[in-house]
Amino acid sequence: MSVVDTIKEQIESNTILLYMKGTPRFPQCGFSSRASAALVECGERFAFVNILEAPEIRSELPKYANWPTFPQLWVNGELVGGCDIICEMAESGELKELVAAAAKQEGSEEA
Length: 111
What we know:
- This protein is an alpha+beta fold.
- Helix content is about 55%, strand content about 15%.
- The chain is built from 5 helices and 4 strands, in the order H-E-H-E-H-E-E-H-H.
- It has helices at about 5-15, 30-40, 55-65, 85-90, 95-110, and strands at about 15-20, 45-50, 70-75, 80.
- Strands 2-1-3-4 form a 4-stranded mixed β-sheet.
- A hairpin with a 2-residue loop joins strand 3 (about 70-75) and strand 4 (about 80).
- Helix 1 (about 5-15) crosses helix 3 and helix 2 runs parallel beside helix 4 (about 85-90).
- It is globular.
């Protein structure tokens, strides 16, 4: 499986996915810390990939996504954006709505 195939599989398999430096409990940069905290505040479960432990994903994802920086939030297979966009959406309430709708949709698919 190629790195791009791995990325596609991760995005398709996880309704809410954050590519970040570190983990939500132990973020390794300020941007990842702010983005993951905003997602945690939404109150829904989300998947994450620690790109510091996956250098091949760290190098390929920016090309695949056409987005140069981390973190990257993906919801329902679509790139939402990075830290600034995530935080702006959190402040306006849009992030909570988006994440709640995605989590609800995921829950109905499993039933």
